[in-house]
Amino acid sequence: MRRILLFFLPLLALALISGTIDLDQLFNYADQDIPLYITKDNTDGNEITNEAATLGRVLFYDKKLSANNTVSCASCHHQEFAFSDTNTVSAGLNGGVTGRHSMRLINSRFADEVHFFWDERAFTLEEQTTQPIQDHIEMGFSGLNGQPDLDSLLNKMSGIDYYPKLFRFAFGTEDITEEKIQGALAQFVRSIQS
User: What is the full DSSP assignment across the chain?
Assistant: First the structure.
């Protein structure tokens, strides 16, 4: 029974991804209408492409980016609340809670932010995107106290059949790196506009 599951689970995952994202007809992330009164744009060398923003969307909603497959970025950044959280503090891995409320993400592209997070510890949106993944409470790939580290996540993702394909689609190569994850997630977040 286990062999059958191991064989069919990747096929099911691919079918689910294929069923929700048509790589031949992507959403228009790169060329959205922007009102003329908005003059700010902080993309700064990480221009939005439909391909990378699509990968970023998959990453954003995928609970496999947490150490125990239970938490995604969307677990704390709820679309219906401007990609924020209505709780005072957000729920993390294994019932843990974060130290602060998750910030809203909508219209991030047009912000004057020079630092990210409430404590301003990240200097770019790209740098910010993988810090929750590497936090021992939020998503668990911290490498602390027996938890897996980011290299473990990269290896895990390489073994999930749709990720090498999506990375090749977005970046021209199947190599999965932190920098590419950061770029794709940041592009998706910047594409979220009201």
Answer: -HHHHHHHHHHHHHHHHHHH--TTS----TT----TT------TT----HHHHHHHHHHHH-GGGSTTS---GGGTSBGGGTSB-SSSS-B-GGG-B-SSPPPP-TTGGG---SSBSTT--BSSHHHHHHTTTT-TTTT--S--TT---HHHHHHHHHTSTHHHHHHHHHHSS----HHHHHHHHHHHHHH---
Q: What is the pLDDT along the chain (194 residues), one digit of tens a residue?
A: 444 444 444 444 444 444 578 999 999 999 999 999 999 998 889 999 999 999 999 999 999 999 999 999 999 999 999 999 999 998 889 888 988 878 888 899 998 877 877 777 878 889 999 999 999 999 999 999 999 999 999 999 999 999 999 999 999 999 999 999 999 999 999 999 98
Angle between helices 178-191 and 50-61 (to 10 degrees): 100
Amino acid identity, position 137: I
Burial class (CB within 10 angstroms; exposed 0-12, middle 13-18, buried 19+) of 160: middle
Q: Is the dihedral of CA 147, 88, 86, 183 positive or negative?
A: negative
Say which amino acid occupies 94: N
List own/partner pairs for 79-84 with CB under 8 A and 24 or more apart.
82/106, 82/194, 83/189, 83/192
